[in-house]
């Protein structure tokens, strides 16, 4: 027979064990929830794969093994596409900024496309920008909006609506070669499609709209997810702008590498896009995602370490298969 003190000790141990089990179960649930949200792939749609096709004009896949582009030949010219890339450096020392500008003129709007990592739509599905670009035979590419990090926004790609949860300022590409920035809550996806929208990207903020720089970047909020960071300070950046129909400018800013490039603020990025002549401009996912790819190689210095970070999507240029 257990005495009173022994019974009390046993009761305490049993309660402690129960509490520990409950805590472990709760901890396990939290860990699984975080992994499910940020690590485990959730494929919602597998997109029909046409990456293996070549254009009737004879364009073929460009791989890193075949081409070693340098700053002396950062250009591409065909009957349908003109690309010129320039590296720009401003400031010095800890205030130096290094960025890359791609001026691109297209004959056909369909030469500007989007592609998903692993050719699939869903969350936590990522590949390096260069790998997605190579798989789609891209001549040029930049990272997209990393739609897979969040569960909201309006995501239209290649004329298909994949997600329709309007929450923020966005950007749309149209089949007439134009680009427009807009508020997702003010125009529906069906209206966009009726107007000829082929693709939308949901990140932001809008940098330039109707020829004017957006007035205030001090309270920009893109995500409320776990792990979201402020984007107001100087950071690596990726942006796309339209100068005229079928005339685009793409900017990728390196950063977080003192003495090489500190990155840009949103205000500085908007000023650059304005100086380049953009009448519409939009900020895409930046930081470690910021990557520019051209003719089989990465042009910039991702993460300040020449190391790409996996992303969920890209914008890219390819010879029009219908030309």
UniProtKB/TrEMBL annotation:
Coiled coil: none
InterPro entries given in the database record: EpsL_firmicutes, NAGPA
Protein name per UniProt: Exopolysaccharide biosynthesis protein
Domain Phosphodiester glycosidase: 136-317
Pfam families assigned: NAGPA (PF09992)
